Amino acid sequence: MLAPKRSTPEIAILGAGIGGLATAAALHRAGLAATVYEQAGQLTEVGAGLVVAPNAARLLRRLGVLEPLLRQAVRLEVGWEFRRWRDGSILSAEDLESSCERLYGEHTYTVHRADLLAALENAVPTIRLGKRCIALEERKGRPLLRFADGDVVEADVVIGADGVHSVVRGTITEPQAAVYSGLCAFRALVPAGDAPAFARRRAQTLWLGPGHHLVHYPISAGRYVNLVAFAPAGDESVESWTARASVEEFLREFDGWDPRLVDLIRAAETPGRWALLDRAPLPNWSRGPVTLLGDAAHPMFPFFAQGAAQAIEDAAVVARCLADDPGDPVRALRRYEELRVPRTTRLQEVSHGRAHLNHLPDGPGQQARDREFAEHDPLVANGWIYDYDPDESRFLSAQ
Description:
Elements: E1 11-14, H1 18-29, E2 34-37, E3 49-52, H2 54-62, H3 66-69, E4 74-75, E5 78-84, E6 90-95, H4 96-104, E7 109-112, H5 113-121, E8 127-128, E9 133-139, E10 142-147, E11 152-154, E12 157-160, H6 169-172, E13 179-191, H7 197-200, E14 203-209, E15 212-219, E16 224-232, H8 247-253, H9 259-266, E17 272-278, E18 290-292, H10 307-324, H11 329-358, H12 364-375, H13 378-381, H14 383-386
Parallel strand pairs: 1-2, 1-12, 2-8, 5-14, 12-18
Antiparallel strand pairs: 3-7, 4-7, 5-6, 9-10, 10-11, 13-16, 13-17, 14-15, 15-16
Helix pairs in contact: 1-5, 1-10, 2-10, 10-11
């Protein structure tokens, strides 16, 4: 016999990353209680910089976390500034200072991931640390979570925000190995005092070259420059924030590039490096009262800087669906999936395609790409990304 439905469901969220914390904050704002379970013993400064585009900024503002975050954020004046690898000539750039808020109602910011996590953490009532989930089962129609410390928790709803290696994902879909992309990513921070002046500007700059590209922008109220670069991976197949490379290895990948960029790389602190693995979009995220969110549902290449933003959007939508239909969580999660899968699938696909476009060898294809960049303002061309608002009626029907 199935357990009776509750008027307000008990909700368990696995993972205290950006998606998990944003979901707990959104549920709290909607009047629903949730407990976040995080395997780490403490929330530490993992990762580096990320972009908070208008579609994420408006949702963070509604959660009450944008204003405190802005003390550590950098408001960009220039975005998607594409430069040529050899001489730094500008191919295209967004005028964010004068146009972004006018077009989309919010500015674009860059932040350290740890600062965003701290702002979200302050909006979440209940986080349990040191809780590594080892199994997800069912008991009398309700999900049951087993943790490595022997604890067992039942809930009405389980939301798997537990990342690309999600335990929850394996209970919803057949396990599928990630596909090797052939690319690796380098990440590093450069203290602002050591960075060339061009890199300290309030700009998100992308340098494009054969088989490689590199992105930099200031974070942490301008104290650091965040650096992320993509190159052929060779035999590197470690997908980890803790994998390490040397500055010399980083420099070898960009030998012959504009000397200003080489100077920026040379000033980097110990780079991190990991392989970029590819995962196909999932057609379904939910099974009964269990669903996925963020990277657990739709890991995507970072070439549109939308990974964190899409997790924040997921959080807003799943909270709205559960608040609108608290007596039938299964139906609410089906609604959440219907609303979100088409959009995140599209973003996964365009992000995947951007790898080829960014890495074209010099020649006719590269020249055609550069002309296209010069003729179209990416701030307008990407409006379908930035104007999304899950609280507006036009986004409340499945696409």
